[in-house]
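On clarity, I found the account of how folds are encoded harder to follow than it need be. What matters is that the chain and its backbone geometry are given together, residue for residue. I therefore recommend that a typical entry be quoted early in the introduction. An entry of this sort, consisting of the sequence and the corresponding backbone structure tokens, reads as follows:
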Amino acid sequence: MAHKIFFSVAPKVFLVGECVKLLPGLNYQDTVQKGFDYTGQSQITVTFSNICQQAFSVDAFTLFSNTDNGGNFSAKIEGFSIGVNQSISIPVKYYGICLTDVPERNYIISLNGISANYKLLINTPFINTPPTITNVELLLPNRQDYTFHDNDFLPHYNDVDMHSMAAVILEGNLAPFRLNGNIVTSPLEVSFYQLQNGALKYIAQNTDDEINISVTLKAKDELGGISN
């Protein structure tokens, strides 16, 4: 009786590194806010494909990170499952604070041999620094009205952002003041145009006594910033 040789060949065991990759031919772009502390927010997904006849679970991993100027920003993919011959889009999760000074960064992201370009645009929020204004001191003769003008305030006004003065704000006892001849209440905002046209006046009191009047003065810039 003849004897035979028998072979038992085990089926191929596919590994996640052989099968799950970035979907080729795609690039990505998103915008983040400089200085914002991200805790998982984003509006973008990255697409992965499984080219094998086996489902897989993929562990979480980091796409890229940015530590410019001491920042701790990172873009991550949380763990996910992908079925046989499936392509799925997985949300990107942003964490930490991006502090880079450049308007954009280009990263190469990759998974198991397939790479893509990921352009990150960095939006730097505009911060308006409030203006400052110093004391305005006037010495008036007895029983003499006074008409204010813009030059009473401009030498005392400063704005590091180079924004123009838009108005002054007076607070306190404004009984001696008139705007366009009208009695006013506190607080009173007087526009730069009104100052230029002499709309703000001090009405002298009917007394020979020495009078000291003090009201709080603030300045407002053209973007709405108000001095402290």
User: Anything to note?
Assistant: Residues 17 and 74 are 23 Å apart (CA to CA).
